[in-house]
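Why MYO10 protein? Reviewers of the renewal asked for a concrete example.
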Amino acid sequence: MVLRGYVPTSEETLQTLAALRLQSLNSDFSTHAPFPRLEELFPPHVLHTRLPPPRRRTPTKCRGARLRAGLLAGGLWGQALAKQRAERDQRLRGRLREEGASTMAAIVEKWKLLQGMGRPEAMAAYVALVREWPGFGSTLFDVDLRTSPVGAGPQRLWLGIGAKAVSLYKPGEPEPLDSFCYGRISSFGASDSSTFRLSVEDRDLLFETSQVDEIAQLLNTYLVSAAARRPPQPQELATSPPAPDPTTPPQGLCPMAGPWQLRPPVGSFHS
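Here is what the prediction returned.
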């Protein structure tokens, strides 16, 4: 999750995590120690964010200009543009190598400071740093939230499935945009093979994702586990009702929105 960018934290912390990983893998720093590739220690997307954004081409304003541009594209002008693009790509690759070398040097300096730390201590320190993120322990899925305004495109989000709640994150942001404990969720299921529906009280959230089954199965697992741990209520002990339905969400996390409904339409998972 760290390497895929699913732990939003500072670049300094990411470098420290990489150094702790090296200490865990290779023990103390040595010039003879095997060096993993940078992408095995540090999230590559962080390096890409340092590069300048690509320039946008200015659209031609009149039909004659567009026509001339089209005619020239297959001739000398097109060759010149291709050469410019190749030179620009080469400069970006060079800049990326420089940023990578600088980052690796910073990681190695932090690794040297860990001399004498054993593997268990390095692993414990690594986990302690990651646990500082409030979403630690959640499984994150890339989803597109369908929005209702006409003309508005879907919003790219992280859907975090945890033991006590479902949270929505803006990618890279440490705090959730919204969070729903299981007591507020009235139903969930697959609308189709690429759309997951989550009903929260009076709201229906539709997510476009390629991991519909994985999300639904994980949600169901947490619900069954939470229901199994739920202690009996006083009124339950007095009336001795039948055994609780495993799909009933735990009480006490937040006010109930209504009875739990697990709706697996066509194409959904099997509970």
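The radius of gyration is 26 Å. This is the kind of structural detail the renewal will allow us to pursue systematically.
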